[in-house]
Design the sequence.
DNA sequence: GTCTATAAGCCGATAGAC
DNA sequence: GTCTATCGGCTTATAGAC
């Protein structure tokens, strides 16, 4: 099927997503205008509305795409039967996956308050689904006697906050490689649940 | 000295600060207008400019006031000579101080990208000064043989991320009191540095 | 110190030509 | 699918009356 001159849908759609993601991460959703996104893509502002009904949907789609991909990638990982090995796999996966997508992670945490109530509820459900996977590992380890955890739900939140914190300081050009950073954080995570 | 009718400087100034803090925390700096702040205070928008030269200064002043107060409060705490006790005091202080000021904490972490470069540098200096106090405790404990820490600077970032994470889920009306939450997090912090 | 009025410009979103 | 032009409304900040 011949394509009309000026028809670039297959190219424009991902470019809009990438431009929006980078600009939202750098300046914040509310501070970025549809005109800025269009300029970054190299189209006029009206053209954006062929791909998204409004600005809010652009944000919501970025967040849900990120969380869907996170859940799918985590589900695709090996889940060792041994709780200690399962926790190590989770910790290393979490650090690696998040460190490689700082913009998407930043938006998913920082722009929650700019979602409409319905969209917020949907995103929160996805986030909880991810947290529940860590909670399940901790509970299994607790039941098996491998871990000693006073408050499993708090430990879940503490571990995720600690691991995600890597993104606030890690730089590829730094002293430590991501692999070495994984080692350090896994050691801290292991101590947290055994001690 | 008699006061002119309509002169409410001593009352208006803190009310502007409080309104800005609450609105910035709830909706984000970029999403809040000077008109919204004025409406919350109960004055017209022009009156705000008797107290702040512009919106940016309002944000900057909130952040520096928060960090200055944090540093002063931390400095006023007892600093036990024993590293383990010093770390416990720091962890408990950090949780309590941050949990009691969720709006100020939220703004200080989330609105960094909305600061001008000069203001950002100033705020980062204050934040590093606070982090350095935890690093000093960890180093002293390491030197005294009380702690076993592979990467002291990473441990600093990990502990602060973990402790500040309390604010993402803690509610006064929840199952656990703040004091009990302190106990749980201190236990995890202790494990982190000893293991 | 607060008010009203205004300047100058950007916002999200839409209509209609091509 | 992209463009230009536009609508109605909002923005920060200032000027000048009281």
Sequence:
């Amino acid at each position: 099927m011949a394509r009309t001159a000026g028809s670039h849908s297959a190219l424009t759609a991902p470019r809009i997503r990438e431009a929006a993601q980078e600009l939202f991460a750098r300046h914040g959703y509310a501070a970025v205008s549809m005109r800025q996104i269009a300029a970054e893509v190299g189209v006029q502002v009206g053209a954006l509305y062929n791909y998204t009904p409004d600005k809010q949907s652009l944000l919501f789609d970025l967040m849900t795409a990120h969380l869907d991909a996170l859940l799918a990638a985590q589900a695709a990982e090996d889940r060792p039967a041994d709780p200690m090995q399962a926790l190590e796999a989770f910790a290393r996966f979490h650090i690696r996956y998040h460190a490689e997508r700082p913009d998407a992670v930043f938006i998913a945490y920082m722009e929650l308050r700019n979602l409409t109530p319905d969209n917020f509820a949907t995103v929160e459900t996805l986030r909880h689904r991810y947290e529940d996977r860590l909670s399940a590992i901790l509970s299994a380890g607790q039941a098996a006697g491998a871990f000693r955890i006073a408050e499993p739900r708090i430990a879940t939140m503490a571990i995720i906050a600690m691991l995600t914190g890597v993104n606030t300081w890690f730089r590829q050009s730094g002293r430590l490689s991501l692999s070495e950073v994984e080692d350090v954080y896994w050691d801290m995570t292991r101590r947290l649940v055994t001690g």
Remarks:
- Residues 6, 33-35, 45-46, 49, 54-55 of chain B lie near DNA strand D (CB under 10 Å from a C1').
- The interface with chain A takes residues 26-31, 110, 113-114, 150-151, 154-155, 157-158, 160-162, 164-165, 168-169, 176, 181, 184-185, 187-188, 190-192, 194-195 of chain B (CB under 8 Å).
